[in-house]
Amino acid sequence: MLRKLIGPRGAVCLVCLGWVLGLAGAVTGQESTETRWYKGNLHTHSLWSDGDDFPEMVADWYLRHDYQFLALTDHNVLGTEVRWMKVKEIERRGGPEAIGKYRSRFGDDWVLQQGTPGAEDHAIGLRPLVEYRTRLEEPEKFLLIPAEEISDAVGKLPIHLNATNLQEMIPPARGQTVREAIANNVRAVADQAQRSGRKILVHLNHPNFGWAVTPEDLAFVAAERYFEVFNGHPTVNQLGDETRPGLELFWDIANTLRIDRFKSPPLLGLGTDDSHNYHTGKGATSGRSWIVVRADKLDADTLIEAIGRGEFYASSGVVLRDVRFNPETKTLKLEIEPQEGVEFTTQFIGTPNDYDRTWPAATTEDGRQVTVKERYCPKIGTVFATETGLAPSYQLTGRELYVRALITSSRPHPNPTLKDQKEQAWTQPVGWEQWVKAK
Fold first, then answer.
1. Which residue from 141, 325, 365, 375 has the least number of CB within 10 angstroms?
2. pLDDT tens-digit profile of 15-35?
3. How far is CA 132 from CA 24, 55, 57, 136, 170, in A?
4. Beta bridge partners of 169
5. Per residue in 378-407, pLDDT tens?
6. How many Å apart are CA 359 and CA 364, to the nearest integer?
7. What is the spatial distance between Cα 111 and Cα 131, in angstroms, rounded to a whole number?
């Protein structure tokens, strides 16, 4: 089965899976009259796995903070029936006030209990999504989407992918290598999408977590179109280290390989919270990064179809009123939401066609290929232009393999993960089609 997913140049074939997931549309670059934007987070945890609050409480936070959609993505579980959890375990994770806050928000009658209060057997039921969504959802205001973090591993390397809009839980598909594990899990999601008739989005989480995934790995598995360019968890090695690239350069390396060597569409970048902690303000908290999707309506299938067309951007605070790429003039134009006293700097980033194609190879003692960032051509991830102001634009010259925009605000992030972090936004790569079509 895996051989059927391998493209002519060795990359796992997008075409074999993209249509099943509803992701075969063109990326950003289509002119559109649609101007409705929906803000959401696709990576969130609760007591159902390793989070420290009830799923309803987590969802209520996002509702109260003006998100329009949320996927609760607990590890290897979908939460389709009541699960009983000992009160002592809930208090160990969330603190002694966690249950009291839950009662205060949803009422005593809502709280499921069994056993004797104060005794070892005292437990509270974690309700399934089908029950608590009725207390929170509202058409065109807030949507909860069933999802799972498929948590796999190759040896000690964590391979985690989020599948959004699932019908049933998907167990880890396993694989002998990182690339095979990613491809097998993407295929498992595609199989469910085909059986169920649902649009299902699958994206790779935090590739630098545990230094598990290299840009080469993700470039090779062309069927995986999405990854987290920003993840708000403080332990995911967002900035890389002295030898390995941060996720900005990671994105550029992978997309240079995809477009130029494998002739496949680029990775699209998501921002997520990966939140686990909701009581102390410390750890992996909410409100650090998200995506904003331009779609016709607040519906899971519609949102995923729009994401598949590249009609979204990632953000950690910067708001874009509009993102447009005109394929005829080859011009990427942005309109930034102004904020009093705040300045914005936009960098247009990509890789020129004349970069050095001598590709480095570095291996560990066990023979696994790794990434050593200093050995890559410095033209990968070139800043082609920098503009200030609210209406930056860039016209491609024809020498760029792709261009994406990074917008950085002068305002510090109110809930930072990184030192001296500013609010930012990331648009999707454009202008790559001519190189993918090239023979």
1. 365
2. 334 433 444 333 444 444 546
3. 33, 8, 10, 7, 22
4. none
5. 999 999 999 999 999 999 999 999 999 999
6. 17
7. 12
First and final C-alpha spacing in the chain = 27
pLDDT by residue (tens digit) across 143-202?
A: 999 999 999 999 999 999 999 999 999 999 999 999 999 999 999 999 999 999 999 999
Q: Which of 210, 200, 123, 209 is closest to 165 using CA atoms?
A: 200
CB contact at 8 A, 165 and 198: yes
> Under 8 Å CB-to-CB from 99, ≥6 apart: which residues?
87, 90, 91, 111, 124
pLDDT in tens, 271-326: 999 999 999 999 999 999 999 999 999 999 999 999 999 999 999 999 999 999 99
Q: Which is nearest to 430 in space by CA: 313, 294, 296? A: 313
Return the HEC string of 182-234: HHHHHHHHHHHHHHHCCCCEEEECCCCHHHCCCHHHHHHECCCCEEEEEECCC
| pTM, 2 dp | 0.92
Cα–Cα nearest to 179, from 337, 410, 7, 330 = 7
**Helices and strands of the chain, counted as H and E runs:** 10, 21
| Cα–Cα distance for residue pair 196/414, rounded to 1 Å | 41
Q: 95: left (phi > 0), else alpha (psi -120 to 50), else beta?
A: left
Q: What is the largest CA-CA distance in the chain?
A: 72
d(Cα 295, Cα 420) in Å, to the nearest integer?
33
Q: Which domains are seen in the chain, by residue range?
A: 2-82+127-437 (3.20.20.140), 83-126 (no CATH)
Tokens of 326: 């005109």
Residue holding tokens 């130029």?
260
Within 10 Å of residue 380's Cβ, how many Cβ atoms?
A: 22
